[in-house]
Amino acid sequence: MDKIRIGIVGYGNLGRGAEASVKLQPDMELIGVFSRRKGIKTVSGVPAYTMDEMLNFKGKIDVMILCGGSATDLIEQTPAVAAHFTCIDSFDTHPRITEHFNNVDKAAKAAGTAALISCGWDPGMFSLQRVFAEAILPQGKSYTFWGRGVSQGHSDAIRRIDGVVDARQYTVPKDKYLNAIRNGEMPEVTGQEAHLRDCYVVAAEGADKARIENEIKTMKNYFVGYETVVHFISQEELDRDHKGIPHGGFVLRSGESTPGTKHVVEYRLQLDSNPEFTGSVLTAYARGLNRLAKHKATGAFTVFDIPPAWISVHSDEELRAHSL
Amino acid sequence: MDKIRIGIVGYGNLGRGAEASVKLQPDMELIGVFSRRKGIKTVSGVPAYTMDEMLNFKGKIDVMILCGGSATDLIEQTPAVAAHFTCIDSFDTHPRITEHFNNVDKAAKAAGTAALISCGWDPGMFSLQRVFAEAILPQGKSYTFWGRGVSQGHSDAIRRIDGVVDARQYTVPKDKYLNAIRNGEMPEVTGQEAHLRDCYVVAAEGADKARIENEIKTMKNYFVGYETVVHFISQEELDRDHKGIPHGGFVLRSGESTPGTKHVVEYRLQLDSNPEFTGSVLTAYARGLNRLAKHKATGAFTVFDIPPAWISVHSDEELRAHSL
């Protein structure tokens, strides 16, 4: 069997997550990592190249897994790479997905490549669960909860406050809403009401903790409107207990098939590492995308377009015998 | 927009569940119900026909939803109907799925139709979750738990015991295993160990309850090897509290992306009515199958072959804008 030849573009946490995941897939071969930085050493020992060297790999890499950040990198990088390679990204800036899709679609169609965008866990696996549950239960209500997990953006925002040395913010879904939905209720609840913001803060010696706590809780666009809890801890405690980047969440749909006959569908992810799981989803869908490309499909696609069998390493016969 | 014209074959609990579900889908029209019995009255008022009249509807029905039982009906009915119509079933006799697939595939290919088999919640939605989670986390362990839900087969087996008037058996997954898996453990546990069999029994007046309880707990292939609990209740209590046909269950996968970095994926269904939810899955996939048939695909298929977008009533643009 010819292995699927993979390239990874971008080598931060997500790139390393994708690298680890490709190494677990028996039908894939990691050809190289492409980075803006020169001379990086990869975890697996696979060769690293600069972005400028990428075009030397035309015809030698089947799928490029793009591991840059959405806002700054992917919005330009995915169309640029799609002009030469079949590629996949985890673009997650929701309001710009349509714009990004159209840009990538145009570049990929012009080049005769296929590109899959917005493939991670949300957007990605959570999106799939929303589509499945809504198609099956058209009469009902869907909910998405995020966490318990680290929000990098909120952690950074706290760190910018005067007197803060370090900080970690967890987004935590409130059990009372989860349990109400599981019990067949359909609460009207906003994202602000549904989540708690749990903050672990290292203050500088002598800093005014009451002021810091107040600045956090009154920070617009980040904490105002949310129930926010602030814990002051030492740097040692933060390093010991809060260095991971766990995340996850829930997609639920509560619906009725006939009046009074209720069904609840729940999908839950508990992830020790957000970037490693996202990398794992990208890798599985790189397989599906490679199969799509072999069918001569060109343009932009999403997880909604890929038959589930195509992301599996197993044959259709094996899937029917063992997974159906 | 031309509506998808649906026929329902078989009019027991599942047929009525499919009927209710079709009525909730704005892009579908229920043309008729086909039954072995003559002169039945349908819940929705849609016309009922006998099986013999089915061929009069060639070209007038886009998808037939087959709602018979697996063991007795579908094994013969699906290939027979596939010889004339695009059709979908919920065949769930696991050991015979390959045989059934091959029979249906042959009939459908010869006739130039498409047929989707084994489409419900297990097999069906649970199967999809197993494939997704295993593709994303190749290093790990998958678990399926059923319940809390009524097992018709086990309820019937209890009713055949001398001195039993009525009975209802619930299969209940044990929380200790669910919680262990959610905590990242990977217990080795058999299906017998993982489930409790909870029995509600109405005994005849003067019947020996100790003997009945003993006969239940020692019944081979049904209860031996399981933790079994027997409650004796009155017919009134059974009619009041145990007349529903709820079911559901869990698919979990616990896996690692790098050593020590764990992820847990959980999919849970809580269904007030097993046949109504199964009917709802069949209906959503009837939409996907209709689209597959429009692509001139012929032969047998499963849920693994259908791009998720195809089961949705929404356009690709809408899905990207609102569900991704």
Automatic annotation (TrEMBL), chains A, B:
- Tell me yes or no: is Amino-acid biosynthesis among this UniProt entry's keywords: yes
What Gene3D superfamilies does UniProt report for this protein, alphabetically? Answer: Dihydrodipicolinate Reductase, domain 2, NAD(P)-binding Rossmann-like Domain
UniProt keyword Ligase, yes or no: no
E.C. number: 1.4.1.16
Question: Any stretches that span the bilayer, and where are they?
Answer: none
Q: Name one GO biological process term.
A: lysine biosynthetic process via diaminopimelate
- SUPFAM superfamilies this protein is in? Glyceraldehyde-3-phosphate dehydrogenase-like, C-terminal domain, NAD(P)-binding Rossmann-fold domains
Sorted keywords for this record are: Amino-acid biosynthesis, Diaminopimelate biosynthesis, Lysine biosynthesis, NADP, Nucleotide-binding, Oxidoreductase
Q: One of this protein's Pfam families, by short name? A: DAPDH_C
**Which intervals hold domain Meso-diaminopimelate D-dehydrogenase C-terminal?**
120-273
Annotated NADP(+) binding sites: Y11, G12, N13, L14, S35, R36, R37, C67, G68, G69, S70, S90, F91, D92
Q: Where does substrate bind?
A: W146, T171, R197, H247, N274
Question: Which EC class, in a word?
Answer: oxidoreductase
Care to name a GO molecular-function term for this sequence? nucleotide binding
| Pathways involved | Amino-acid biosynthesis; L-lysine biosynthesis via DAP pathway; DL-2,6-diaminopimelate from (S)-tetrahydrodipicolinate: step 1/1
Instruction: Note the InterPro entries from the entry.
Output: Diaminopimelate_DH_Ddh (IPR010190), Meso-DAP_DH_C (IPR032094), NAD(P)-bd_dom_sf (IPR036291)
Give the top-rank taxon of the lineage listed in the UniProt record for this protein.
Bacteria
- The reaction(s) this protein catalyses: meso-2,6-diaminopimelate + NADP(+) + H2O = (S)-2-amino-6-oxoheptanedioate + NH4(+) + NADPH + H(+)
Q: Which family does the similarity line name?
A: Belongs to the diaminopimelate dehydrogenase family.
Q: What subunit structure does UniProt give? A: Homodimer.
Q: What is this protein called?
A: Meso-diaminopimelate D-dehydrogenase
Q: Origin organism of this chain?
A: Megasphaera micronuciformis F0359
